[in-house]
Specification:
Elements lengths: L8 H15 L2 H14 L6 H26 L2 H9 L4 H30 L2 H6 L8 H5 L11 H22 L15
Length: 185
């Protein structure tokens, strides 16, 4: 028994794209990115920063989702078709609920990555009201690099609360083994 068919060349290229895109340091990307956003008049705008976060997170997020999609047994979709379900009904009633934990985990990854990102926000946002929390936390470091630890710790704790709240609200959706027993061997 093998591991299945060899991956399609497009799948190998896509995986290579994901690995390469995640391997580039921010410092190599920031100057061309800054110039592109400047031409689009998106410097010092939250829309520009959101665009950067989406483009930066998308390759890895899609790569994460591929594993969840491949884990859905085709037999379940075939069984739904035998029972008379059309493609849309199969997608909504069978496939989507099975993919929900993967979608939630991927969304959490993208959220936490964007929430904690520092460098892009530091370079692309200049207006103090638009700065992200990681950038604002640097304001607690005073002259000669001395940190005001009390306020810094309090601000860092407050900065983690949104992530904790999001995790608490959707943690029930992240469950393993949803497919266990779904298909008889």
């Amino acid at each position: 028994m093998g591991d299945g068919p060899a991956p399609h060349p497009l799948a190998r290229a896509t995986t290579g794209w994901v690995v390469v895109s995640q391997a580039f340091p921010f410092v190599l990307v920031i100057i061309p990115l800054f110039l592109v956003l400047k031409n689009l008049r998106l410097i010092d705008s939250l829309a520009g920063l959101v665009l950067v976060y989406v483009v930066w997170s998308l390759p890895f997020a899609l790569w994460m989702l591929v594993g969840y999609v491949r884990a859905v047994p085709p037999e379940l979709e075939e069984a739904a078709a035998v029972d008379g379900a059309g493609r849309l009904r199969t997608l909504v009633s069978v496939t989507a609920p099975l993919l929900a934990p993967g979608i939630v985990a991927t969304a959490l990854f993208a959220f936490v990555t964007a929430w904690n990102e520092f460098f892009f926000a530091l370079v692309l946002l200049k207006t103090p009201e638009k700065q992200t929390l990681p950038v604002v936390l640097t304001h607690f470091i005073g002259a000669e690099g001395v940190a005001d630890l009390g306020p810094l710790a309090a601000a860092a704790f407050l900065a983690t609360l949104p992530s904790l709240i999001v995790f608490a609200l959707i943690q029930r959706r992240i469950t393993g083994g949803m497919l266990t027993g779904a298909v008889k061997s």
